[in-house]
Design a protein that fits this description.
The chain has five helices and two strands, in the order E-E-H-H-H-H-H. The chain is an all-alpha fold. Strand 1 and strand 2 (14-15) form a beta hairpin. The longest helix is centred in the first third of the chain and has 27 residues, at 18-44.
């Protein structure tokens, strides 16, 4: 600290300048934001073993439009959304969507085409993974 940055209070103690306080707080907030990012990344990488096959199939067949971890993209809606909870879109709706495609009805992304190459067993695993993601997000 240089002499300009030193100010003494009524008791004679040296007080840091406002700039020093702002710098210290900014550094602390930056460190906290970095640690939060690391926690979020490590939490998302801990998909339970029983949902990992569905995660792989989701990434292969669905993520291009519905985004990594079902958060949506510019091409398709998020599946981790209350619209897709089981009471509104049951598991069978996912099967129909994959087999037949879907006309746009909740979002403005256009119609969803049928997904070539995906089998009903694949969709079962994908749905289990999506439901797990929804539970993690507090939707179910």
């Amino acid at each position: 600290m240089n002499k300009r940055d030193r100010k003494r209070d009524k008791t004679g103690r040296v007080r840091p300048s406002r700039a020093a306080i702002v710098l210290a707080l900014g550094s602390a907030l930056f460190a906290v934001s970095l640690s939060g990012t690391l926690v979020a990344q490590s939490a998302s990488s801990k998909v339970p073993v029983e949902f990992q096959p569905g995660e792989g199939k989701f990434n292969n067949f669905c993520a291009r439009c519905h985004g990594a971890e079902g958060i949506g993209t510019k091409q398709g809606p998020p599946l981790v959304h209350k619209i897709y909870e089981p009471n509104h879109h049951g598991d069978a709706a996912f099967q129909r969507a994959a087999a037949n495609g879907v006309r746009a009805h909740h979002w403005q992304f256009g119609d969803m085409p049928k997904i070539d190459g995906v089998k009903p067993e694949d969709v079962d695993q994908i749905v289990k993974y999506v439901r797990w993601l929804q539970r993690q997000a507090g939707i179910m």
